[in-house]
Amino acid sequence: MGKTNIQKDWEEREFIEDISINVQKIIEFLNKFELSTRNKLSNVNEKLTVLERQVDYLESAFKTVSE
């Protein structure tokens, strides 16, 4: 015996609900990933800034000694 229209409708609704939930999970993951990546890049940027300042200091100290 074939499925009734009501059964098909419920199956389609369940399928759409599953898709919707999975899309929400993907969006949540991407938002967390973006935040984590942004924080990590910010930390790397801070470390690079410190290193650049140290290199500038060493360059000026070396110029002073060599003159």
Automatic annotation (TrEMBL):
Record-given protein name: Component of SCAR regulatory complex
PANTHER family according to UniProt: PROTEIN BRICK1
GO cellular component, one term: cytoskeleton
GO molecular function: protein-containing complex binding
Keywords, sorted A to Z: Coiled coil, Cytoplasm, Cytoskeleton
GO terms of biological process kind: actin filament organization; cell motility; regulation of actin polymerization or depolymerization
Family note: Belongs to the BRK1 family.
Primary location group: cytoplasm
Originating organism: Polysphondylium violaceum
Subcellular location: Cytoplasm, Cytoskeleton
Record-linked InterPro entries: BRICK1
Keyword Protease: no
Keyword Cytoplasm among UniProt keywords: yes
Cross-referenced Gene3D superfamilies: 1.20.5.110
Membrane-traversing stretches: none
